[in-house]
Hints:
The structure is a homodimer. By secondary structure, the first copy, chain A, is α/β, with parallel strands linked by helices.
Amino acid sequence: MKFVSEPSIRRLARYLRIFDELKQRGEESISSSELGQIAGATAAQVRRDLLALGGLGRRGTGYPVSDVARELGRWLAVSRTRPVYIIGAGKIGRALSRYPGFVQRGFRVVGVFDNDPKKVGTKYGDFTIRSIRDVQSLATKDRPEIALVAIPAESAQSVADELMDAGITGILNFAPVLLKVRKGIVVQNVDMTTELLVLAFRVEQRHLVTPKKRLA
Amino acid sequence: MKFVSEPSIRRLARYLRIFDELKQRGEESISSSELGQIAGATAAQVRRDLLALGGLGRRGTGYPVSDVARELGRWLAVSRTRPVYIIGAGKIGRALSRYPGFVQRGFRVVGVFDNDPKKVGTKYGDFTIRSIRDVQSLATKDRPEIALVAIPAESAQSVADELMDAGITGILNFAPVLLKVRKGIVVQNVDMTTELLVLAFRVEQRHLVTPKKRLA
DNA sequence: CCTTGTGAATCGTTTCACAGCC
DNA sequence: GGCTGTGAAACGATTCACAAGG
């Protein structure tokens, strides 16, 4: 498997959504330029990105929708269901636990945790909220690969440490703090304030034309 | 004002958080290498990034914490409070409306909207939820610069159109759909499924060492 | 000494442009 | 004809390395 850059992965995820839609609409094939138009990418980008799947395009006609949809889905999800933990049953954690798109993309929430004694033991949707104190012991059994950490900044690092000890390999971190992790553990940060700040700044800059383009 | 790349803006936002903390701890100055260590960036990146503020560093000692904290805050927030609208009072919208970091960074929620008749007119925190039908007329009065769109994909585009007509300049889009916008309008997409997919993929790739580094 | 600011080199990604194939 | 796959050029961001200044 070749290395794929992060911008390319993000675009591939977007193509996947589009291919799913095209399939549902019964489209048979799509060209790199059409797909680029829809996805906000250039035709050349689309071709280079999709090349990672190993040359599924047909010269003269474009990319066969159902083949690419299947391969791309398989490839991005990497062919299996991944168990994930959600740490924190506050607003963000609860919203995440019912996020509709996860299941469709092969993620299965196998545990929701919180520290609030009022919450621990109660049901939320299909989940019984468990105590963060038990994360490590339970994780050893559940073997989640990825954890979604949605707790206050103060406690995020210590929970991350426990999760790593329990063998987690990836953390989607919603706490506004930079987690220190061992080599080989992948952290991805999601922070609304940063997103808003970046957006606001780009708005401010929108007149400056320095680089060739900027797409969403 | 010079153009600043998106990666640089994201790092600057991170430095700001660190500088705020350093200030609170009473630190007087910090070097590019120390800051880089904390922020997960190289010393050279830190220096280039902070250069955008116009050479506040002192050779031999580093960057004066309180000066940089102030300037950076002023610069990123670009010196004013920005009114924002939240469209959608579902889980995401409600979580956003009370997101603590926004106020601190100069964002003020001036309206929360939903289409559900059961919600419209009710209070949520300090906000009375208003009908999305009235977005356009109210926006003309409230003059929000930015809208946080957290509604189902189907209705996102039409609301975006109304918002643009009402003079919005930036959209933080939580709907899993690519919004078509006029030139000059900045859209930033936030999609948990994509984030999870990217994370999972990076986990899968973590052994491939192709590029020099990969930091969160 | 120390650390910044900055040209110049490097590296990765995007774009170009066209050969190859349907 | 149309469109993909792909070397090669262009571009942007990062890193190097050092001169300038405390």
